[in-house]
Design a protein that fits this description.
The chain has 3 helices and 8 strands. It has 131 residues and is of the alpha+beta class. The two termini are 24 Å apart.
């Protein structure tokens, strides 16, 4: 799928080092999730499958955070829990820190292991696992 122009603009607006991280993440995510829709969502690049957020990244003060909405269910030591639901993250300060093999595996798992964030409001904050 084509990278949305707003994501390209987001990446271009970063400092040189952060831009390298964002471009590397964007390229790998898009290659590994060819059927996913991508767009800026809540001010950050996010990829969706059937309207469900799967993976995205955001510039934080001192790093770029990669976030998998269902990442706590991946059983991956390189991802740390984030928030009160099922999300997990990895943080990078250099593109050289991105573990390409791990990233590919995490993205693969993100397509197969999903919690239904698309309907979380309708379910009043309760998540259900998608099959």
């Amino acid at each position: 799928m084509t990278i949305h122009k707003d994501i390209l603009a987001y990446n271009a607006a970063q400092s040189e080092g952060d831009r390298r991280i964002c471009v590397a993440l964007c390229k790998t995510i898009d290659q590994r999730l060819p059927d996913a829709q991508n767009k800026i969502w809540h001010a950050h690049p996010v990829w969706f499958l059937d309207g469900n957020p799967i993976v995205g990244y955001s510039k934080l003060k001192d790093c770029v955070r990669l976030l998998f909405w269902s990442g706590q269910s991946f059983d991956e030591p390189g991802l740390k829990p984030e928030g009160k639901f099922k999300a997990a993250e990895a943080r990078f300060t250099s593109a050289d820190e991105i573990p390409q093999r791990d990233l590919a595996r995490w993205i693969e798992k993100s397509a197969g292991i999903q919690w239904d964030y698309k309907n979380i409001v309708k379910r009043k904050g309760r998540l259900e696992r998608l099959s």
